[in-house]
Amino acid sequence: MPKAARFMITLAVMSSTLIQVLDTTIVNVALPHMQGELGATTDQVSWVLTSYLVSSAICMPLTGFFSDVMGRKRFLLVCISGFVVASALCGLSQNIVEIVGFRLLQGVFGAALVPLSQAIMSDAYPPEERGKAMSIWGIGVMVGPVLGPSLGGWLTEFASWRWTFYINLPVGVLSFFLASQFVPDTQRRERRMDWAGFALMAVGLAGLQYVLDRGNQQDWFGAKDIRIGAALAVIGLVAFTFYSLKRGASAVFDVRIFRDRNFSMSCFLMAALGLGMFGGLVVQPILLEGLLGYPIVTTGLVMAPRGIASAVSMLVVGRLVSQVDSRLLVGTGLLLSALGSYAMTSYSLDVDKFHLIWPVILQGAGLGLIFVPLSTIAYATLERSRLAEAAGIYLLIRSLGAAIGISLITTVLTRQAQVIWNELGGHVTPYSASLADYLRPLGMFPGDPQGAALVTQQIARQAQMGATLDVFLLITWSFLIMLPLLLLFKGSRNGGHASGAAAASME
Predict the structure, then answer these.
(1) CATH of domain 1-192
(2) Helix 387-425 crosses helix 353-380 at what angle (to 10 degrees)?
(3) pLDDT of res. 500
(4) 3-class DSSP state for residue 444?
(5) pLDDT 10s digits, 448-497
């Protein structure tokens, strides 16, 4: 394939990938503005996120099925056009019911964009350059969630929350045009939908995603809806597992694929990476905006080096993955990420921008080293006939891992802040000499209501800071604990072919 055509294909699929992964995080910072304009409660507006995540999780494993039935190019064009239309409808929504419904639709059409882009990118490059192709593809997947909050904050502040959806229109139209002109089609194959299996999987995934997304808000299993969601998740996923084992290759996807050690361990590590990969995206805006008082735009600039470092390290590893054992690259990435996360545990309320940024760069570089080689290992020992469904399952587990990581981070952050607040508050009494010394230069005294309010505010800030540091320590350990698991993998040097094989077979 000529390099010019390959470039246009890359531009087409990377633009569609970028708008999909951006939409997982770009809306977060706009929720308060949506809430006010649409007249919704905090609980109601959170469904703007939940609806998208649930529908995307349910539909992602169906990528292989619809690619076979419709042909890859036609399916891609349907997904892009549906996603663009749903984005426009989200921006035009006049009430909370409309925007939640259109977000569901957006998740349905957006679910397949990432695995489809992986497939098309792989086919566009020769086997010896597939490591490079996967590194380019990985840049969009990794950088998108990092840029999302920054771009969303900027659009919300200088335009409107509606532009967090309208931004998809010009990019989506460009992607549709390029895909229609340059993306090659694949041969269609007749397949029958396993509706019973799909229903069981949908119930299980929807229940699990609901629990993970709303558990911390609802005090976890203290809330009836969380208990119902958890029950549906267990029943649906267990029933689907037994049903799939019985149906074998005719199921929605065959769970026996997890018998492959490299694939199952890669899925486990990718899910575990959700804590470090996405946990920082939750904690850092809270630290920068809530505790240090940075405006949204400055917060985005401070967080941007993480994504830039990931992109640079991915470009480097794209050249190394076919020459160096993938386990060594992943291990190096885990160590760098752990080191960057550990450096964050030294943050304080007086930290300057330099000391905020360099650990973020180190962590981002480490994550970039992990992503492409881990995908290489995942598909290295699978049979070619099973690689299509493997790509969809792998990306689904990545999404669920992100949801688990975010839920765990927010729970630890909330509960540790309460614990530390109680510990610090126990040392503050009206008879404390230190308290009197602190308030005296401000013209206050311990019995003064203004003094009490000031002290309460400071205790809350210190408690939140202490909880943030505890979260960074947890993220550090999450990277280190994964290191011994690399010994369970089989070696993989032919990275370019392995990482591209899964995508190449999705035809």
Answers:
(1) 1.20.1250.20
(2) 150
(3) 42
(4) coil
(5) 777 677 777 788 888 989 999 999 999 999 999 999 988 888 755 444 44
Report which of 503, 414, 506, 423 is spatially closest to residue 464, judged by C-alpha positions.
414
**Is the four-CA dihedral 438, 442, 443, 448 of positive or negative sign?**
negative
Query: Quick one: CA torsion of 362, 363, 364, 370, rounded to 10 degrees?
Result: 110
- State the DSSP code for 252: S
Neighbours of 45 (CB within 10 A): 21
CA pseudo-torsion sign 67, 374, 386, 106: negative
Record the tokens describing residue 349, joined without a space.
Answer: 């309320």
| DSSP letter string, 115-131 | HHHHHHHHHHS-GGGHH
Residue 106 burial (10 A CB sphere; 0-12, 13-18, 19+): buried
- Report the C-alpha gap between 38 and 229 in whole angstroms: 27
Task: List the Cα angle 77/82/87 in 5-degree steps.
Answer: 130
The whole-angstrom separation of Cα 150 and Cα 296 is 7
Distance CA 470, CA 119 (A): 40
Dump pLDDT digits (tens) for 258-281.
888 888 888 889 888 888 877 777
Gap between the Cα atoms of 280 and 286, Å rounded: 10
Contact status, residue 334 vs residue 366, Cβ threshold 8 Å: yes
The vertex-270 CA angle with 84 and 275, nearest 5°, equals 90
Please provide residue 490's backbone torsions phi and psi, each rounded to the nearest 5 degrees.
Answer: -85, 145
410 vs 287: CA distance, rounded Å:
13
Q: Same CATH fold, 254-407+471-507 and 1-192?
A: yes
Residue at 174: amino acid letter: L
Contact partners, residue 456, CB within 8 Å, separation at least 6 = none
**Looking at the domain covering 254-407+471-507, what would its CATH class be?**
mainly alpha
Residue 219, Ramachandran bin (φ over 0: left; ψ between -120 and 50: alpha; else beta): left
| Structure token digits, residue 304 | 């941007």
Look up residue 88 and give its two tokens: 């426009």
pTM for the structure as a whole? 0.77
Query: What are the distances in angstroms from CA 52 to CA 30, 145, 205?
Result: 15, 15, 13
For residue 492, give the 3-state DSSP assignment.
Answer: coil
Q: CA–CA distance from 475 to each of 5, 274, 388, 412, 479 (Å)?
A: 42, 10, 32, 11, 7
Question: Does the pLDDT of residue 343 top 50, yes or no?
Answer: yes
Least Cα distance to 211 among 243, 195, 235, 242 occurs for 235
Torsion of CA 393, 395, 400, 405, to 10 degrees: 140
The closest alpha carbon to 389, from 503, 492, 244, belongs to 503
Distance CA 155, CA 479 (A): 34
The domains of the chain are located at 1-192, 195-251, 254-407+471-507, 417-467
Residue with tokens 């019985």: 246
Neighbours of 58 (CB within 10 A): 22
CB 381 within 8 A of CB 490: yes
